[in-house]
């Protein structure tokens, strides 16, 4: 049932192109100019009435929600807050009838997320669930459900469910943008066309798995490392760090690249690996100057950058891994893939149980 792969995690990483295709299938109009989400029961009037969005989730799904915040705000121009589900209820969130609460959960059974959903409904908000399991508790109790069509995810570490959640956030934002008029047809078509290229682009990253295995093996001998990134690269850094900790037990921290010098730079010593995401053209120069700060302290920097920008980046990093060119807003759907593979190979190199890491359950049904 692992279809020739050594672990479910690796199989699921390789299933991401298919998960992207399946999650988009039937949701993009034939002319490529709009998104159809026929399963949504919300009306255009309701969409026009949304004043803010709260995204609530745990773990990896929370990291998808952090990307979702930037995606919804930039494409649909609705203000978004993203919260960890176990914190949401206890901070008296301001939930009003014009708040759309989006809960994100692969399993649809996470107790903290379910409790947040109930709290949102009690306060009169409408709840939209993004989940991978159609008949789950969260799917049943939400007002609307958008299913990620990632297929069953067996490995405890979430990979294809996370990336499919990103695809759903892109689709939902474009759907809202159509009603709200925040993007014109040409802009929507451009994003959708770029999304259609993602599956093949992921495949081209997967073809370089052995390069990432070598990188992972060299990282695996270090006790601690850092992930840095700016803008939409930062939540991807958080996800890369979580994945590595979960299955390899190597300590790491993710930092917004500009924030290191406000505290943690002292921990960057000779030889400390730093994985720097540098995919945002607008922030390119700033991130490169943060890379120079860590390099000056002896860090060994792996850059995750864009094809076409190698020359400039190569001057700043020790090793560069390039992802195919896509629109800046879509890069998380590609840049997380090398990080997933690095985590996988680091765990493997250290002889850990990749699919069943210690102290972590696939579905956390206690609060
Ligand atoms: C990470 C991981 C956990 C889950 C979290 C939420 O690889 O598996 O962090 O993402 O427990 O689970 P769901 O999405 O099922 O609500």
From TrEMBL:
Enzyme class, top EC level, equals transferase
Reactions it catalyzes: D-fructose 6-phosphate + L-glutamine = D-glucosamine 6-phosphate + L-glutamate
Q: Does the keyword Ligase apply?
A: no
Give this protein's Gene Ontology molecular function annotations. Answer: carbohydrate derivative binding; glutamine-fructose-6-phosphate transaminase (isomerizing) activity
For this UniProt entry, what's an example GO CC term?
Answer: cytosol
Domain annotation SIS: ranges: 42-182, 215-357
List all membrane-crossing ranges. Answer: none
Q: Which GO terms describe its biological process?
A: carbohydrate metabolic process; fructose 6-phosphate metabolic process; protein N-linked glycosylation; UDP-N-acetylglucosamine metabolic process
Tell me yes or no: is Cytoplasm among this UniProt entry's keywords.
yes
User: What does the protein in this record do?
Assistant: Catalyzes the first step in hexosamine metabolism, converting fructose-6P into glucosamine-6P using glutamine as a nitrogen source.
Q: What is this protein called?
A: Glutamine--fructose-6-phosphate aminotransferase [isomerizing]
Gene source species = Paenibacillus algorifonticola
Gene encoding this polypeptide?
glmS
Section of the entire sequence shown: 244 to 610 of 610
């Amino acid at each position: 049932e692992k279809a020739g792969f050594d672990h479910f995690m690796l199989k699921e990483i390789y299933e991401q192109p298919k998960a992207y295709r399946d999650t988009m299938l039937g949701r993009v109009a034939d002319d490529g100019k709009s998104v159809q989400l026929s399963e949504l029961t919300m009306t255009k009037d309701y969409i026009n009435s949304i004043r803010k969005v709260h995204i609530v989730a745990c773990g990896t799904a929370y990291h998808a929600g952090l990307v979702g915040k930037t995606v919804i705000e930039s494409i649909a121009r609705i203000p978004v807050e993203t919260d960890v589900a176990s914190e949401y209820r206890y901070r008296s969130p301001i939930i009003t009838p014009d708040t759309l609460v989006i809960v994100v959960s692969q399993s649809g059974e996470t107790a903290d997320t379910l409790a947040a959903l109930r709290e949102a409904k009690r306060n009169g908000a409408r709840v939209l669930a993004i989940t991978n399991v159609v008949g789950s508790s969260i799917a049943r109790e939400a007002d609307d459900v958008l299913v990620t069509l990632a297929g069953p995810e067996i490995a405890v570490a979430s990979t294809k469910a996370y990336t499919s959640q990103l695809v759903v956030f892109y689709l939902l934002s474009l759907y809202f943008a159509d009603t709200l008029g925040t993007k014109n047809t040409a802009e929507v078509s451009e994003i959708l066309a770029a999304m259609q290229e993602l599956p093949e682009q992921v495949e081209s990253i997967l073809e370089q798995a052995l390069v990432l295995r070598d990188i992972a093996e060299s990282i695996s001998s270090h006790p601690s490392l850092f992930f840095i990134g700016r803008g939409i690269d930062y939540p991807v850094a958080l996800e890369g760090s979580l994945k590595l900790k979960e299955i390899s037990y190597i300590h790491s921290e993710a930092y917004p690249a500009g924030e290191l010098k406000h505290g943690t730079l002292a921990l960057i010593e000779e030889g400390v690996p730093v994985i720097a995401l540098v995919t945002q053209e607008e922030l390119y120069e700033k991130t490169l100057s943060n890379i120079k700060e860590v390099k000056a302290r002896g860090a060994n920097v792996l850059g995750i950058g864009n094809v076409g920008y190698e020359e400039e980046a190569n001057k700043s990093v020790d090793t560069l891994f390039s992802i195919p060119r896509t629109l800046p807003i879509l890069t998380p759907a590609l840049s997380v893939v090398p990080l997933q593979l690095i985590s996988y190979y680091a765990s493997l190199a250290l002889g850990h149980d990749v699919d069943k890491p210690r102290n972590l359950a696939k579905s956390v049904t206690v609060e």
